[in-house]
Design goal:
Blueprint: H1 3-28, E1 33-38, H2 42-57, E2 61-62, E3 71-76, H3 81-100, E4 105-110, H4 116-125, E5 131-133, H5 141-153, E6 161-163, E7 184-188, E8 190-191, H6 202-206, E9 210-211, H7 214-226, E10 231-235, H8 252-260, E11 267-271, H9 280-288, E12 295-297, H10 305-310, H11 317-330, E13 335-342, H12 349-362, E14 366-371, H13 389-412, E15 418-426, E16 433-438, E17 443-447, E18 456-465, E19 468-473
Parallel strand pairs: 1-2, 1-3, 3-4, 4-5, 5-6, 7-10, 10-11, 12-13, 13-14, 17-19
Antiparallel strand pairs: 8-9, 15-16, 15-18, 16-17, 18-19
Helix pairs in contact: 1-5, 8-9, 11-12, 12-13
The structure holds 5'-deoxyadenosine and iron/sulfur cluster.
5'-deoxyadenosine is lined by residues 79-80, 199-200, 299, 301, 339, 341, 370, 372-373, 375.
Length: 474
């Protein structure tokens, strides 16, 4: 089936769902409601916007309170074991709610449900779940929803609706979407990952890498700009390899140039870059750009060349350091943030010393630090020399302390200067302040009201408070 045919079926299924939702709402004398709960990364957040868009197109109304919704859909993450634990804890407590309200419908999708073992666990231990589907058939959701709604009508309870694909080469465009923010939006530019870093489960649950045609991406960004979006975040597991496998002659740097030309878009971000594929061409395009934000998230994972080789990262300590130095030299003011894993099999204190050395030399502006989590089916899971939890925790503290030191130092460098802030929200603690981000991704809080949300405002960066700023309008 072609992607266009798939798109047609998707829209027809939504129409069929709408009739059932309407009928059910009439019987109940109120609207049917939904709540999508998202775990994990920006990719999942983006998928949840599509899932919500489909539900709203089918006639469901959004319910803020998860426990009060007629249909609750969990979009799950499985990157580390604590993500799984968190989800199963959550699912257990919703089971008690469903006991009191048996008409409640519960669905599970996303990365965790793509794993066979997790699926078996759900089927066996959480029999109240009504629907499960995976990451490759998100565009199947309207059809599955239709099955679920007809099952409700015929009262055919106790039958789990489940559908999984092992992988897909399809990219279905034009899925309805309900955006979380009016003024910023994620845009998928590619799906999946081919890198097989030896600790990582993503290639197994998100499948092989596939890029979207640049014309589809640009059309989507133009529509977003027409709809008031100022900032786009281009999303992919490895954006630097964008374009491989497409029939058109394109790469990530050329795509960025095309996005730059879309009027109405003021800021361009992207996530995530793999150091092995970050080209000089990309650095040049960033340096010349007026719109690409001064921030690159460049996961290091480890500063030890020996561990990097075992991780299959395809760069060394030295090549990472020279790449970071080149970026800092050619793009002044750029923020470099990173991901670091501590406690990978075979990692010694000397390896962690190397990681700390890289943090010190690069002076990261921020870092997410993780303790290694064994994922079934990955290469690292069968490696010897596991690091004890105690040692991993000790080294984690060492790494964290260094990261905090460099990121505070870096943040302080711009104290007293002015910068452009895209205002995102009212400050949660103090409603007389608004909160936004600088181009380099630092948070700034300054006096203002809701009318500023979605605007780019010039702000004086008066006081650095560790990792964020208190400012005032310049
Ligand atoms: N254990 C710990 N951290 C992991 N990450 C990916 N897989 C694992 C794992 N098995 C981290 C990496 C990646 C980030 C998204 O999650 O640092 O960059
Ligand atoms: Fe996982 Fe490596 Fe792919 Fe990132 S690049 S998703 S860490 S396999």
């Amino acid at each position: 089936m072609s992607n266009e045919e798939e798109e047609k079926i998707l829209l027809e299924s939504i129409d069929s769902c709408r009739l059932l939702v309407k009928e059910r709402s009439r019987l109940l004398g109120r609207s049917l409601t939904y709540h999508v709960t998202t775990f994990g990364c920006q990719m999942n957040a983006k998928d949840s916007e599509k899932l919500s868009g489909i539900l709203e197109a089918a006639g469901f109304e959004r319910e803020e309170d998860e426990l009060a919704a007629d249909f609750v859909l969990y979009n799950t993450c499985t990157i580390r074991d604590n993500a799984n634990q968190k989800f199963f804890g959550h699912l257990g407590s919703i089971g008690a709610v469903k006991k009191k309200n048996p008409d409640m419908m519960i669905g599970v999708c996303g990365c965790l449900s793509q794993e066979r073992s997790a699926r078996e666990k759900i089927t066996q231990s959480y029999p109240f779940v009504d629907l499960i589907f995976g990451t490759h058939n998100l565009f199947d959701f309207p059809q599955l929803l239709y099955k679920l709604l007809t099952r409700q009508v015929t009262k055919g309870k106790g039958h789990l609706i489940s559908e999984f694909w092992d992988d897909t080469d399809r990219i279905v465009e034009n899925i309805p979407s309900r955006r979380n923010y009016k003024f910023k939006s994620g845009v998928n530019i590619m799906f999946g990952c081919n890198n097989f870093c030896s600790y990582c489960i993503v290639p197994y649950v998100r499948g092989r890498e596939k890029s979207r045609a640049s014309s589809d991406i640009i059309d989507e960004i133009k529509r977003l700009a027409d709809d008031g979006v100022k900032e786009v975040m281009l999303l992919g597991q490895n954006v630097n390899s964008y374009g491989r496998g497409l029939s058109e002659d394109i790469n990530f740097a050329r795509l960025l140039e095309k996005v730059e030309e879309v009027s109405g878009i003021s800021r361009i971000r992207f996530m995530t870059s793999h150091p092995k594929d970050l080209s000089d061409d990309l650095i040049d395009v960033m340096a010349a750009s007026k719109k690409i934000c001064r921030h690159i998230h460049l996961p290091l994972q480890s500063g030890s060349s020996r561990i990097l080789e075992s991780m299959n990262r395809q760069y060394t300590k030295e090549s990472y350091l020279s790449l970071a130095a080149k970026i800092r030299e050619r793009i002044p003011g750029i923020a470099l943030t990173t991901d670091i894993i501590v406690g990978y099999p075979g990692e010694t204190d000397a390896d962690v010393d190397d990681t700390i050395d890289v943090i010190e030399k690069v002076q990261f502006d921020g870092a997410f630090t993780f303790i290694y989590s064994e994922r079934t089916g990955t290469r690292a899971a069968s490696m010897p020399d596991k690091v004890s939890a105690k040692e991993a925790a000790r080294n984690f503290e060492r790494v964290l302390a260094k990261v905090q030191e460099t990121s505070q130092k870096r943040a302080k460098l711009i104290e007293g200067m002015t910068g452009d802030v895209l205002v995102e929200d009212i400050n949660r603690q103090d409603s007389s302040l608004v909160t936004g981000r600088l181009s380099n991704n630092l948070n700034v809080h300054f006096p203002g009201d809701a009318s500023l949300i979605g605007q780019i405002v010039r702000v004086h960066l008066s006081e650095c408070r560790g990792f964020y700023y208190i400012g005032e309008r310049a």
